[in-house]
Amino acid sequence: MGYMNNQFILINGIHYQKDINGKPIKYQAWLGDIFASFYDRIMEKSIFPKKFGGDINKHFEILQHEFQQIENQKILDIAAGSGNVVSFISNNNHYSGTDISPGLLKIAAKKLKKANFTNFQFHICDVCNLPFEDDFYNVAICNLSINFFPDLKRFIVELKRILKPDGKFFCTIPLPEKKLKNVKIRGKLFTQVELADMFEEAGFKFLPLPYENGNLLYFWTIKLK
């Protein structure tokens, strides 16, 4: 299962983390859930070319290459969005997706079902207080979202806790040192050096990848024993 069942309420197929009174915790989603159905188009037509200066097709080619040999693993997708993970991971993996947007997770569920995923679940929860078991997941993913996290160091501590020894974390994120002029990217950006320092201080090996796609950095980290 991987998650702490007594911390969730199941509503319309999505597990909501509970507050101290047993009520489902809800968050203000990026753009609001009313725009969930336009999320993929916004990423393709606006965010990638205008904010990242990159190619979304190349982005998914990179992801496909990095995940092509990952099968039958327990995967946690953090800030899962609309479920585009179906385009780069095998459907024989055991998949858990988290986000703060129920609207996006409903779209993601439809994509996973259409792609013949049979073992998957979705959670609305706090990335800095992940309600999952210790040493459970083989792989975690966060695609283009850690700049929105309220406390990245706290998230890294939680990430280390829920990953198995030698567990891996894959991340993509825009870098401030590569940011396009006169372009504002929401959230807090960290340089590659800052990211490496934070992960290594927390007990990870930091492995940047050599891909060039606009201002994006692609990297793996490995949890050290």
Describe the overall structure:
The protein has helices at 39-52, 56-67, 102-114, 152-162, 192-201, and strands at 8-11, 14-17, 74-78, 94-99, 120-124, 137-143, 163-174, 204-208, 216-223. With 225 residues, it is α/β, with parallel strands linked by helices. It has a single domain, classed as Rossmann fold (3-Layer(aba) Sandwich). It has a nine-stranded mixed beta sheet with strand order 1-2-5-4-3-6-7-9-8, with helices on both faces. The longest helix has 14 residues, at 39-52. It is globular, with a radius of gyration of 17 Å. The chain starts with 7 loop residues before the first strand and ends with a strand. The mean pLDDT is 92.
